[in-house]
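Sample 1 of the test manifest.
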Amino acid sequence: QSALTQPASVSGSPGQSITISCTGTSSDVGTYNYVSWYQQLPGKAPKFMIYDVSNRASGVSNRFSGSKSGNTASLTISGLQAEDEGDYYCTSYTSRATWVFGGGTRLTVL
Amino acid sequence: EMQLVESGGGLVQPGGSLRLSCAASGFTFSSLWMHWVRQAPGKGLVWVSIINTDGGTTRYADSVKGRFTISRDNAKNTLYLQMNSLTVEDTAVYYCARDGGRNLDYWGQGTLVTVSS
């Protein structure tokens, strides 16, 4: 199972919006609405952010939103803040009843 | 308070074995599927395995199939990962995570496994 494709890095200034894409195939993202997103700050365990494509996990700011079109899911962060800086990963359930992660995206807040 | 605490990591030689544990508390462990995920140093997250509530259903990533075995003891609220025939490519932090409905909604802090001669 190949990893989902994410950009290696994105950046934005405080207050701006950024979008991170996550491209899979018809065997995962394209068929299942079980796409979730995770934030990982340096030296920390991943934190659950978005589930089932577009639902925010408990306690997650409404500045974070998710969507999907075809084989590509997206995470959008609006009103960028310095504390958002870190790594972001998508994952999807697959037709083999397994999970696959994206390669991760490093977000830099300028 | 919900907690997942991994243990059992350490240094092992190539070809060796190691068993990781994940102690769960603060939720009904026996009612939830559980995952293992790993992260090599400086690299991304990689899904490893999942187990259902009674241990009767398991799935593995191709990279570990036939070498790793996931299991659980619901009486002890503990998840396990038996790792055999380890290679340097298995060097990583190993996380256990709770399945919240085809997502990984709570993670432990991880345990480091280093495979080196």
